[in-house]
Amino acid sequence: MTEHIVVVGHGMVSHRFVSTLGSRYADTDLAVTVIGEEPDPAYDRVGLSAYVGAWERAALHLEDARHSADPRVTVRSGHLVTAIDRSARQVELDSGEFISYDTLVLATGSRAFVPPVPGHDLPGCHVYRTLDDLDAIRAAAETAGPGAHGVVIGGGLLGIEAANALSLIGLTPHVVERNDRLMPVQVDGRGGALLGDLIRDRGIEVHLSVTDTVIEPRDGADSDGGVRVTLTGDDGETTAVEAAVVVFSVGVRPRDELARGAGLALAERGGVLTDRACRTSDPHVFAIGECAAIEGTCYGLVGPGYASAEVVAARLGDGPGADAEFTGADLATKLKLMGVDVASFGDAHGRTPGCLELVVDDPVTRTYSKLVLSDDALTLLGGVFVGDAGPYQLLKPLLGRTLPSSNPLSLITPGAAADGGGVGVESLPDDAQICSCNAVTKGTLRDAICGGACDVPALKACTRAGTSCGSCLPLMRQVLEAEGVEQSTALCEHFDQSRSELFEIVTVTGIRTFSGLIGRFGRGSGCDICKPTVASILASTSSDHVLDGEQASLQDTNDHFLANIQKNGTYSVVPRMPGGEVTADQLIVIGEIARDHDLYVKVTGGQRIDLFGARVEELPQIWRRLVDAGMESGHAYGKSLRTVKSCVGTSWCRYGQQDSVGMAVLLETRYRGLRAPHKIKMGVSGCARECAEARGKDVGVIATETGWNLYVGGNGGATPRHAQLLAGDLTDDQLIRYIDRTVMFYVRTAERLQRIAPWLESLEGGIDHLREVVCEDSLGLAAELEGRMESHVEGYVDEWAAVLDDPDKLDRFVSFINAPEAPDPTVQFEERDGRKVPVLLGSPSMPARV
Question: What is the DSSP string of 763-815?
């Protein structure tokens, strides 16, 4: 008999419940209906700020957001459940439809709380909770135009995130907090003071100890949504802010109205009252996530929500775990707010009677660390970190345990830790949680490793650790190392060194040939892995032509002919068009070449023109005409810079804030021809509207009112990623220097065929470490990296032109050595739907499109 389960709400916790249910009872006869009020299926609400700038909803959708892999699950997005009929066991939708259930799971989450301040319901007022909320804030900001201000009411976690979002949209943010410090729940007085200073340094106005807030239509009119926000401090002083938007972020309230209407028991302070099995006062109804008041307590974090989801999923079967209960919640917090590390756990405020507080307050590095210890200084009770949360990951699992060091100071002072007093992952007990989001312990990871999971992806797949916020990934790697699992970094069977190690060897020794390198540091004659890799390293460390001498034999087919080979053995030719710019005369030449050589023409996604169908002997003829027209190789064939996409910026656009075309041309001209471990794509957007899709590029630049924001680590393809902010409001000079350092550091340290996004993910310390290297010169490499890039720029020579000037290189471009002018008879084409397409001999033609 089919068990009918209805889930009301389709957020992260609902998604976890349905996914767990599906995998736990894969062979059970279930029918699960998920009803979500929002038009989008489950998305990453924790990462909501990542939506700003990219404005791509699908990018935030959780994996298999609609559960399409499980035919037993039906997702109904964009529907509101208006009532529950417990006696009939059915729910009513806003459409009037009724859906019956055997078991009902409430996952209605929470709503943003809006305090009843005067003017809170004016058109310019918003909350920061959903994708629709962010779209509305964005629309208001665009209407207001550059230079407008935005006010965030609430200086907690979400308040500062909302302020960051306003900054990215192009507004000048103000954060209003009624307490004397930001994030009063998580950090103490001194930590909050430092956090406030660091946030102000990032261009955000902070208003503390505000006792009264009044919102009024600006100039007595509310047609444009603009408002005046008057703030009164505890000293009686008032401040008025003319704002385009006001965003309320002062907390959430559980959405329990549906349960209240159905007569279910509620907790004293709101929320659907449940026992530790997450069962409500009706045995057929469960509640999970933020709407559930488990034994009277609501939890507003995703970790406890996931735990409640898994409890109910286990309870609905009769196998192992059928008596599962919610055993508590990890309320620790670690996040990066506008580039500032903040973390707290346990008794962060030192409220335990007799406790001791050990504080390191460093005004030079602008960091603050505090440990709260038992009265005998042996047991860790809590901690706070601001500015540098490095120790947090290893200390949090020790909460409530005896410290592994007799010198607690060594736990928060790296210098002392170097003397042996610090804590490592090997000192953690097996029941210590490594991944708090998914409640994965060190012991669980060890068992998985013993079962054959020998790298981080394998551990993710079998334990779910590291699949939510990802902050535990460094610890997962340390557990692997502690268990003696060594990840081979050898390039191939011929070199024991990794690509980055070979790069350093070539740099230090000055070896300029593959034979010299393998003869001294490798073995054998090489393979199709190490030969092109070494060729790339040699090209990255000099301005020699890729077809010079022995190096020519190392190249793969595309680099060997400086063009992309296509499926029928012909090649495509892509001339460079920096920033997408091209003259009318150049367009005419491209058209004439396409006509004369009968080539298929396509405009690419990178603002260039691709000419398809050229035979190998035609390539030099085509290059000559392009070079004579002032064009050069677009390096579409190489692991190098491809394009720098741009919008029109201030040149033409009325919203442009900087000259995005000029910057794109400058960047593409500067980095053209730079060989790298993988291809590099860049983008420059002239404002926050992001028409150039810069955050989907390896290196992205977005104009601000005062300069440029620099993003790194984005890309499209099979595993799309949004680039992360490296630095903001940069001058032209700063931007160039930071890109020089970033790209050259990547070229120097990345592994074979590793694009910038996975390189950044694998980099110990991630974006924070890269920021330290690039912006703070923590490794003392800035001058060297800039110098290497300058050498590349000065030594650049167009590869097509160099071939045309060298008879020996030209001899390579023939179909047949004994008949250099004869075309290859196996190259054939046909016309389909008005398009020229290649035909493979011996294969049936592709069917025409309908």
Answer: STTHHHHHHHHHHS-TTS-HHHHHHHHHHHHHH---HHHHHHT-HHHHTT--S
Beta-carbon contacts of 490 under 8 Å, excluding residues fewer than 6 positions away, are: 496, 497, 498
pLDDT of amino acid 526: 81
Helix H or strand E segment including 730: strand 724-730
Residue type (1 letter), 236:
G
Decide: 770 and 742 in contact? Cβ < 8 Å.
Answer: yes
Q: Who contacts 377 (Cβ-Cβ below 8 Å, separation ≥6)?
A: 356, 403, 408
Tell me the pairing of strands 699-703 and 708-712: antiparallel
Query: For the stretch 664-695, what's the b/e string if a residue is b when 16 or more beta carbons lie within 10 angstroms of its beta carbon?
Result: bbbbbebbbbbbbbbbbbbbbbbbbbbbbbbb
CB of 149 closer than 8 Å to CB of 166: no
> What is the dihedral sign for C-alpha 397, 400, 404, 407?
positive
Proportion of the chain above pLDDT 70, given as a percent: 93
pLDDT recorded at residue 147: 76
Predicted pLDDT at 825: 60
Q: What is the dihedral of CA 544, 547, 548, 552, to 10 degrees?
A: 120
417 DSSP assignment: I
Give the pLDDT band of residue 414 (cuts 50, 70, 90). low
Residue matched to tokens 């020699």: 544
CA distance 638 to 295: 61
Question: What are the residue ranges of helices labelled H in 464-498?
Answer: 473-482
**Is the pLDDT score of 421 beyond 70?**
no
How far apart CA 433 and CA 417 sit, in angstroms, is 22
Q: Distance of alpha carbon 99 from its chain centroid, rounded?
A: 38
Q: What is the CB-side half-sphere exposure of residue 781 using CA atoms within 13 A?
A: 21
H/E stretch holding 81 reads strand 81-85
Decide if 367 contacts 413 (C-beta within 8 A).
no
Q: Quickly list H helices, 349-482.
A: 392-395, 414-416, 442-450, 456-463, 473-482
Within 334-418, residue ranges assigned H as helices are 392-395, 414-416
Please identify which residue in the block is written with the tokens 């005369």.
Answer: 585
Please report, as a single letter, which amino acid is at residue 485. Answer: V
Q: Quote the CA–CA distance of 494 and 508 in Å, as a whole number.
A: 20
Burial class (CB in 10 A: 0-12, 13-18, 19+), 51: buried
Given its phi and psi angles, is residue 78 left (phi above 0), alpha (psi -120 to 50 degrees) or beta? Answer: left
Q: Which residue has the tokens 């000192």?
A: 427
Kindly state the average pLDDT of the residues 140-166: 88
Beta carbons within 10 angstroms of residue 480's beta carbon: 22
DSSP secondary structure code for residue 467 in this structure = S
pLDDT tens digit sequence for 297-322? 999 888 899 999 999 999 987 766 77
- Residue 649 β-bridge partners: none
289: phi then psi, degrees, rounded to nearest 5: 80, -150
Q: Where are the alpha helices (DSSP H) in 170-274?
A: 189-201, 257-261
Six-digit token string for 234: 């505890």
The position carrying tokens 């035909």 is 839
- The secondary element (H helix, E strand) that includes residue 92 is strand 90-93
Which residues lie closer than 8 Å to 147 by C-beta, 6 or more apart? 172, 705
Q: What size, in residues, is the chain?
A: 850
Contact 627, 591 (CB under 8 A): no
d(CA 338, CA 161): 8
Helix (H) or strand (E) holding 230: strand 227-233
Determine the Cα–Cα distance for residues 643 and 629; give it in Å rounded to an integer: 20
- Cα dihedral: 121, 125, 126, 132 (round 10): 90
